[in-house]
Amino acid sequence: MDSMRIRAERPGDHAAIAAVIERAFANHPFSDHTEQRIVAALRDAHALAVSLVADEAHAVAAHAAASRVAIADGTPDWYGLGPVAVDPPYQRQGFGTALVEATLRRLRDLGAAGCVVVGDAAYYRRFGFGPGRGLVLAGVPPEHFMAMSFAGGWPEGEVAYHAAFGGGD
Length: 169
Fold this sequence. Notes:
There is one protein chain. With about 170 residues, the protein is of the alpha+beta class. The chain has one domain: Aminopeptidase. It has 4 helices and 10 strands. The strands form 2 sheets. The protein has a 7-stranded mixed beta sheet, with helices on both faces. The chain is globular. The protein starts with a strand and ends in a 9-residue tail after the last strand. The model has no long low-confidence stretch (mean pLDDT about 90).
């Protein structure tokens, strides 16, 4: 990990990002294995607000994305973190942590009001995510849907991710 560098994705990274995402989610018990298509569809729709890679020895080792979400009460400037993917040989070495921290910094720099994430609460709590306080995501158990407010306020209502999350087709 000594040579890891976090940077914005470049056009030449797209195939490597897709391959990393596919390998990272291959054995994930809650994956429908469309994550790489979601990222491609977000990219095609110019909806990737943040797309960062962890570059290790000039190769993509991990990727994190963030895109705008809509909240039923109309609160603007909220984003969804994910997918976050680390190639299996690089897992448990700090790549995911570095990417999540960098993505959250980038969102704050963009003026984001807050961020939501679907995932393992034990993992995402350490970044400051917690229960959604009135935010819900249809079909996702509340213990796996978390939020973080950057601006201090908490919107309420159902959250809708970009249409790409419907399967990326």
